[in-house]
Design goal:
This protein is mainly α. Helices cover 41% and strands 7% of the residues.
């Protein structure tokens, strides 16, 4: 596996993000996410599967066309109350060609996003403050216009201020300390929101502010401790539910003490919380953003769980729930980690990009959209699902 520290994903140059070594510059957001490039340097295809690459491009263009046709006249997609949904769409529409950012769809979408900026620095309407701000901040960092910088820096300060510590939680040495929740009245941290904040801050952070002073930043070590407290890995996670049984070891759950995949009874009589797919990719991404090296035991354990539970048929541990979010996180995490071929525990060599692409092409509806029949986490909304899939396919397409 590539050491992403030997081949950094991005380098900050004056006013711009620059692709480094041809590695995709991957953003997310809430779920969310993007591939950002500076006038884009695209790597040569790895396997030369031209036919599948053309099929993927056709599917993406149909998906983009479907999304463009569904923009509200006021600039938003799906709901005016959750700017993250629009941010996910503009991220998908940005795609591999920067000139798309000049389209009327993009201009109206970004104008709506900027209109959601609040006096406290957050970018939201009335709820899910952290989630909305993170996803929008990632989209603004992707466009990276000088005129957006004040909003970007205000949003960074707002998200940094949402990180909780023992004092806010009223606990000592709390496993939740260092994480971030939805914001507002929902302050209890979870891995999904924390990952989105880490992603947004990672891709938007300057070393210095406009006056040359060191810019404020998150307590990354505290955030890292929270992330490892969501991993099934005794040794780095001392909570009683953490398990090293083969089914769970190395994978991640939603929050300390809470797994959306439920519990499992171990032969020893202990009860473990079940690891599942989407959060395990979120955990791997969080480790990358927190600057862990690929040979760190926590990263190795995460990759081992992902190899042992690899599938494109479901979100492992959750079935159809959150399936399209899972696909997007898979594309982003494995690309950013430099994984071209995934070796499963039974020794199979998997071209995961080809398998994922074929699956997504087969799931596309005749009108160009994608939609989950399972409505968990808003995934009955075809705008959300189509934005997830277009982003995922754009991430993997150039390396098919």
């Amino acid at each position: 596996m590539l050491d992403w520290h030997q081949c950094p994903a991005v380098e900050r140059s004056p006013g711009r993000w620059r692709s480094w070594g041809g590695l995709a510059f991957v953003l997310l957001a809430a779920g969310l996410t993007a591939v950002a490039r500076d006038a884009v340097t695209v790597s040569a295809p790895l396997s030369g599967n031209a036919s599948l690459r053309h099929e993927a491009r056709h599917a993406v263009e149909k998906g983009r066309g479907w999304l463009e046709a569904r923009q509200n006249t006021n600039g938003w997609w799906s709901s005016p109350d959750h700017p993250a949904l629009t941010a996910l769409v503009v991220t998908a529409l940005m795609g591999p060609t920067p000139e798309k950012a000049l389209s009327s769809n993009m201009d109206k979408g970004y104008a709506y996003l900027l209109s959601c900026a609040q006096p406290d620095g957050g970018i939201y309407k009335e709820e899910l403050q952290s989630y909305n701000t993170s996803v929008v901040l990632s989209a603004l960092a992707l466009r990276n216009r000088p005129s957006d910088q004040a909003v970007i820096q205000n949003a960074r300060r707002y998200l940094i201020g949402l990180q909780v510590g023992d004092a806010q939680l009223g606990e000592t040495n709390s496993p939740f300390s260092g994480g971030i929740g939805y914001g507002g009245t929902e302050k209890r941290p979870d891995l999904s929101n924390t990952m989105l904040v880490l992603e947004a801050l990672y891709h938007s952070r300057p070393a210095r502010d406009a006056n040359g002073a060191k810019a404020p930043d998150l307590n990354w070590q505290a955030a890292l401790r929270f992330v490892q407290n969501c991993q099934n890995l005794p040794g780095s996670n001392t909570q009683a539910w953490a398990s090293d049984d083969p089914q769970n070891k190395g994978g991640f759950i939603y929050a300390p003490g809470r797994s959306n995949a439920g519990k499992t009874n171990l032969p020893s009589g202990r009860v473990a919380l079940r690891s599942y797919g989407s959060m395990s990719y979120a955990g791997l991404l969080s480790y990358i953003y927190a600057d862990l090296k690929s040979d760190d035991p926590r990263v190795i354990a995460a990759m081992d769980w992902l190899r042992g539970n690899y599938t494109v048929e479901e979100n492992p541990g959750m079935g159809p729930q959150g399936l399209y979010y899972y696909y997007m996180l898979m594309a982003k995490a494995l690309t950013f980690a430099g994984v071209d071929t995934l070796e499963t525990r039974d020794g199979r060599q998997i071209n995961w990009r080809e398998e994922l692409t074929l699956k997504l092409i087969n799931l596309q509806k005749a009108d160009g959209s994608w939609a989950n029949d399972n409505g968990r986490w808003w995934e009955k909304d075809p705008v959300l699902d189509t934005a997830y899939v277009v982003t995922a396919m754009e991430i993997v397409e150039n390396k098919l």
